[in-house]
Amino acid sequence: MRFNRFYINQRIDRKVSISDETLIHQWRNVFRMKDGDEIVIFDDSGFEYRARFLELGKNKAELQILEKVKNEIVPKREVVLYQSLIKKDNFEWIVQKGTELGVSEFVPIISERSEKKALNMDRLNIIAKEASEQSGRAQLPKIHEPKKLSELLENFNGNGIAFDSSGKNFQFSIPNFQSISNISIFIGPEGGWTEHELKLFKSKNIPIVSLGNMTLRAETAAIAVASILLL
């Protein structure tokens, strides 16, 4: 039997007391749960727990842990997505789908052609939490505060690839990517990277590659690349 999954932002022991109003509302009024019902909860530890409601009141819930299991849904590699800021709805969609695919971290980039300079971080974290619950992953992705590309690249020394229509074909440029255990991908804004930004990537020896001849929207490129690397 498959149980609904919920992230719990606290340590899980044999018995768990919950006072989170949002969770209690969701359990009581959305899922119509009651005493004796079972759910699965997880706490970002890599484990998940089958639990039964001992009490589900208006302001408090008491859960008894029935089973602790190591979650085996682990991405095949660690992918950090450096995504230029784009329209709010499209950026939120990237976080949702990227979380479902297994992206480990999201790093918003303020690039020279970014359409906006700020994000609602609380909303993004809620989207990532709900996508983690839905997809079965046991650990939430980390979402960083936006930073300028030049600042991010100052201390960057990992495995990185930047996507731009001017680059060489990804398939032939990074032939050994299947053996890489962690990789950072840089996706530009609508309109692409500027010449100055492309020079910054080259100065850090970050290959510039493309996904082919089609012109993709920023959000499409981000999810396409994440799918290639994680699926």
Task: Explain this structure.
There is one protein chain. The protein is an alpha/beta fold and 231 residues long. It folds into two domains: 5-70, Hypothetical PUA domain-like, domain 1 (Ribosomal Protein L25, Chain P); 78-230, SPOUT methyltransferase, trefoil knot domain (Alpha/beta knot, 3-Layer(aba) Sandwich). 31% of the residues lie in helices and 29% in strands. The protein has helices at 21-30, 88-101, 121-135, 149-154, 170-173, 195-203, 218-230; strands at 5-7, 15-18, 38-42, 47-56, 61-70, 78-84, 105-110, 142-143, 147-148, 160-169, 182-187, 208-210. The strands form two sheets. Strands 6, 7, 8, 9, 10, 11 and 12 form a seven-stranded parallel beta sheet that branches. The protein has a five-stranded mixed beta sheet with strand order 1-3-4-5-2. The protein is elongated, with a radius of gyration of 20 Å. The model has no long low-confidence stretch (mean pLDDT 92).
Structural features:
7-stranded parallel sheet, 2 domains, Alpha/beta knot, Ribosomal Protein L25, Chain P, 5-stranded mixed sheet, 231 residues, alpha/beta, 7 helices, 31% helix
In brief:
This protein has helices at 21-30, 88-101, 121-135, 149-154, 170-173, 195-203, 218-230, and strands at 5-7, 15-18, 38-42, 47-56, 61-70, 78-84, 105-110, 142-143, 147-148, 160-169, 182-187, 208-210. With 231 residues, it is of the alpha/beta class. A hairpin with a 4-residue loop joins strand 3 (38-42) and strand 4 (47-56).
